[in-house]
Amino acid sequence: MQAMATEAFIGNMRGPVIRRTDADYDTVRSLYNGMIDKSPVMIARCTDVADVVTAVNFARQSDLQVAIRGGGHNGPGLGSVDEGLMIDLSMMKGVRVNPTAHTVRVGPGCTQGDVDHATHIYGLAVPAGIVSTTGIAGLTLGGGTGYLTREHGLTSDNLLEADVVLADGRIVTANKSENADLYWGLRGGGGNFGIVTSFLFQAHPVNMVYAGPVFWDLENARTVMQKYRDFLPGAPEELGAFVGLKTVPPVDPFPAEHQGKRACAIIACYNGPMEDGQAVMAKLLGELPPPLFNWMGEMPYPALQSMFDPFFPKGLQWYWRGDFVKELTDAAIDAHIAQAQKLPSTLSLMHLYPIDGAVRRVGKNDTAWNTRDATWSMVIAGIDPNPQKAGEITRWTKGYWEAVHPYSADGGYVNFMMDDGDDSRLKATYGDNYDRLVALKGKYDPTNFFRLNQNIRPLHS
């Protein structure tokens, strides 16, 4: 009977269903994070909402655990599952821009690069992350921070509406007036409540930007991080800028004399005229030592968004940890620099992304994303192409996190969580909103069907 049900399921799908015996199985199942290897029984490559409903119903009736893959960028590999069904949305890529309303309808398989490509010709952009290969679905449902966050808020703050397939196979729309409780939960609550098959975003005027990286030798990191910390809160919100500890990539076109040096970098984006951006950055740079190089210049916004793509292709080894940071003290800066001196590979890094400006103009209980009083979202990422270095980069990341965590808030950004332990970490992240999320889970997914995520369990699961 199960074989008959499987054949019926495959016959009812418009998109292909990949099984272990198929020649392209290994290619399709491969994950962005090469450290993680999972083997689903089948991969349902959905082409439309009907396919998603068909896959959900089959998995529920067959008692198969499901993993949902959108853009496929998830760090801990939650887009796949051993011995279950991967519901793969990566073929659902449509983007439709309404230039009059400044809204964008986006399919769940889109990357932020897909969205940028479609919106840029209208002089618009949706606030997103900093790497164009990032999947828009997971980014949005977890929050979403990037260059436009200070001016226009989180990606999830710009979500106007979502179409959602629930665990029982129903299709609902969530917005301010329809299923408003679900709409609240989708903005930061992750993939806990259903499969979003369509996102409607508010877009904003963004065209040419003054942007790029500025690198200093690590010996200047303390001064750079102090000045950045003190400067940014008073800077215009048109300036999005994060600070990082990393290595000058040992490849062209980086200056040969600096390649491989440990460094502190500020990567900035001013959304406005170049001369205004230069004037703003001059106030910061004027208080800092001369950099190794300053590559800020005028460029199309999608060029900035894709600038780092070549360094982070699919298949690298990744291990990351995150925290929210309310205050970057001198002692914390010293702890960061001590860990950065032990960087285990040229790709490993720490970034501090600002959380202020427009993010704080949304009430902490207005969406599921709760940490509106943070100042930065920190990520520490051990990254290397060599699988034999997986253990080393994991140990470095954990050690770094343990060294700086005493200076951090209790919770962390869910999109930067990996194996962060029990529910206490999520409870700290969602704070006052956690109990409401549990109740919402009980309403929309009482059996915890969607549990391969940063999971919020219903009370009686």
TrEMBL record:
Q: Which UniProt keywords apply?
A: FAD, Flavoprotein, Oxidoreductase
InterPro entries referenced in this protein's UniProt entry, alphabetically:
BBE, FAD-bd_PCMH, FAD-bd_PCMH-like_sf, FAD-bd_PCMH_sub1, FAD-bd_PCMH_sub2, FAD-linked_Oxidoreductase, Oxid_FAD_bind_N, Oxy_OxRdtase_FAD_BS
Record GO terms (molecular function): FAD binding; oxidoreductase activity
User: Do you know which PROSITE patterns this protein is assigned to?
Assistant: FAD_PCMH, OX2_COVAL_FAD
Domain FAD-binding PCMH-type as annotated: residue spans? 36-206
- Tell me which cofactor or cofactors this protein depends on: FAD
Keyword Protein biosynthesis assigned to the entry: answer is: no
A Pfam family hit: BBE
- Which family, according to the similarity comment? Belongs to the oxygen-dependent FAD-linked oxidoreductase family.
Name the PANTHER family on file: BINDING OXIDOREDUCTASE, PUTATIVE (AFU_ORTHOLOGUE AFUA_1G17690)-RELATED, FAD-BINDING PCMH-TYPE DOMAIN-CONTAINING PROTEIN
Protein name per Swiss-Prot or TrEMBL: FAD/FMN-containing dehydrogenase
Source organism per UniProt: Bradyrhizobium lablabi
Biological classification of the source: Bacteria, Pseudomonadati, Pseudomonadota, Alphaproteobacteria, Hyphomicrobiales
